[in-house]
Write a sequence for this structure.
């Protein structure tokens, strides 16, 4: 009987030690779990904050691009209007003063000047159009 009592006491003590070690291991696992949860929570909050910043920047860039496109379109309309006005003036000069010899030289000069201006306006239109396409491509790449 005593031997059984000693064996049962040994088993009881062994089970207590196992229980204590398992409880300690459980506590460590819980602490590690809490640390990991806090770490992921912090990372998630940082990523959300960064996402909001990037979205804000994107929205600002989109607004800016829209305003620039609108400005370019306005510039193109204005330059086209100027080109039409120059063509009308040239036509009036040619139609009214067709018979005068001195006027012919003046008309030719005016034609040359108008042609230079129209080429300049055309170049400006091409430049603005290229900028619009470039902005649209930049936006697509975002």
């Amino acid at each position: 009987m005593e031997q059984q009592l000693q064996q049962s006491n040994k088993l009881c003590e062994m089970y207590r030690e196992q229980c204590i070690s398992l409880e300690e291991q459980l506590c460590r696992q819980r602490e590690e779990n809490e640390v990991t949860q806090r770490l992921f929570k912090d990372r998630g909050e940082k990523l959300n904050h960064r996402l909001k910043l990037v979205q804000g920047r994107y929205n600002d860039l989109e607004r800016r691009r829209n305003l620039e496109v609108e400005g370019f379109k306005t510039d193109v309309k204005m330059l086209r209007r100027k080109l039409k006005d120059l063509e009308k003036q040239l036509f009036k000069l040619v139609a009214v003063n067709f018979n005068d010899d001195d006027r012919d030289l003046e008309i030719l000069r005016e034609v040359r000047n108008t042609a230079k201006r129209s080429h300049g306006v055309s170049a400006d239109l091409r430049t603005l159009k290229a900028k619009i396409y470039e902005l649209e491509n930049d936006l697509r790449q975002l």
